[in-house]
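Quick one, tokens below. Sequence please?
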């Protein structure tokens, strides 16, 4: 269990020494919540890289640093998780640009990310709490609802989130995503969380089901 974000500095510095070329890490998930004091600990570190070249460089660096690989389990069925790396108490889930069924690390997400570490080869960014919330609406892992509640009570830009959802659905063509997002937000509403964009989410969901009904009637 990682209880302090500073514990990751040793890993980042170790990887930086063995990396070949420049690599940008975009951190998502519990590690970002830990950084912002929204979570007391996390068992893994979710990292997205933007290209195949960066993925291969990171994979080689992790193995040189003593990490071993593990296959993703069924709880990650909605993820596009490329590889899991484990070393002692540290676990790194590594993604190559795509995170959830075609949902990608977009230019908007990169723009909203916070740069927190700049090393010789490695630069570390933390994705925004807005985008972490959005990623967690796709998942069904234990604890993700509690994480969404904590995130919803922090600095969330709901308009940015809705714009990101709309752009990703349009560019990918995966409009079924709105059903995953809608279901998770329904659960949050039941727990008393205010979601200012819920009306817009409902309209997109209704449009999806109307179109689905016409195509398969």
């Amino acid at each position: 269990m990682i209880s302090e974000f500073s514990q990751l500095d040793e890993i980042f510095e170790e990887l930086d020494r063995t990396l070949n070329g420049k690599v940008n890490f975009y951190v998502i998930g519990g590690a970002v919540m830990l950084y912002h004091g929204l979570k007391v600990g996390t068992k893994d570190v979710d990292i997205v890289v933007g290209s195949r070249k960066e993925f291969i460089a990171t994979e080689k660096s992790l193995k040189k640093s003593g990490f071993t690989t593990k296959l993703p389990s069924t709880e990650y069925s909605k993820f596009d998780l490329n590889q899991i790396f484990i070393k002692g108490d540290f676990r790194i889930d590594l993604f190559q640009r795509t995170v959830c069924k075609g949902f990608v690390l977009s230019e908007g997400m990169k723009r909203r990310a916070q740069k927190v570490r700049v090393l010789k080869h490695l630069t570390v960014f933390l994705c925004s709490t807005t985008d972490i919330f959005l990623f967690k609406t796709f998942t069904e892992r234990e604890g993700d609802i509690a994480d969404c509640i904590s995130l919803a009570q922090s600095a969330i830009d709901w308009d940015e989130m809705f714009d990101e959802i709309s752009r990703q659905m349009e560019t990918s063509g995966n409009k079924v995503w709105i059903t995953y997002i809608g279901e998770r937000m329904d659960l949050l509403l039941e727990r008393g969380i205010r979601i200012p964009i819920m009306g817009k989410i409902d309209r997109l969901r209704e449009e999806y089901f109307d179109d689905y009904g016409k195509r398969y009637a």
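The domain at 7-216 is CATH 3.30.460.40 (Beta Polymerase; domain 2). The longest helix spans residues 198-216.
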